[in-house]
Amino acid sequence: MVERLRESCPEVTASKLHFWEREGLITPRRTPGGHRLYCPADVERLRLILELRTHRRLPLETIKALLQRMEEDPTYRFLVMERTLHEEAFDPAFHPLSRSEAAAQAGLTEAQVRELEALGLVLPCPKTGRFDEEAVHLLRVLAGLLAMGFTPEDLRFYARWAQEVARHERALFAGLCQDGGEEAERMARYQRFRQLVGPLLRLLHLNYLRRTLYDLLGSPEQGTEG
User: Fold this and answer.
1) Is residue 34 part of a domain?
2) Of 9, 31, 162, 207, which one's alpha carbon is 20 to 30 angstroms from that of 197?
3) How many domains does the chain have?
4) Is residue 29 included in any domain, yes or no?
5) Does residue 113 contact residue 74 with C-beta atoms inside 8 Å?
6) Do the Cβ atoms of 142 and 116 come closer than 8 Å?
7) pLDDT digit of tens for each residue in the chain (226 aa)?
8) Domain region containing 202
9) Residue 25 · residue 63 · CB < 8 Å
10) Is residue 44 one of the residues assigned to a domain?
């Protein structure tokens, strides 16, 4: 088992595996003789723990909370791998909030949150209807924009744009996965894909924004005489 993991994760050791088992991060099955048995799902879970612990430097309590959320919602893993690249930190003590609780956290009214939901600007969990950390963070951003005088309808375009981008990325990524492969391989492709597409979107947006702002703020060529 250790030798197999070392092919992709040289830092794994038997002592780490035993420690993570004692901490409740992994629960391998046992043979009647007491030997540990790791199924493919266990191996993939170990790779994820190694990524979050060794490469992303997340504390064990945070990793444990993230793994629990992933068990409740398998799609949460994609969010985890995205957010660990960003500056926002995970709070292992966070529990999904009701609409009224999320509204209070963001400084909005419940009616405002309902309107933002209706326009697709914030998306609670489809299974529970509650708001996770990402949704609450998004509500705070939206609250800041509303405080500037924008209306939810002014911001609706961004929800439509994000939905179309997500659909397009799903189609592109599905093409990358046509040849199959293990889950770990597909996840590695996804991470590489997102690491490249993220900057692509950001840089394209900045370049087009500069062009559209020239007539509003003045292009460098216009200048002023002094």
Assistant:
1) yes
2) 9
3) 2
4) yes
5) no
6) yes
7) 566 666 656 677 888 888 888 888 888 888 888 777 777 778 778 888 888 887 777 888 888 888 887 887 777 776 776 665 454 556 767 788 999 999 999 999 999 999 999 999 999 988 889 998 889 989 999 999 999 999 999 999 999 999 999 899 888 888 777 766 676 677 777 778 878 888 898 899 988 888 888 777 765 555 444 4
8) 177-213
9) yes
10) yes
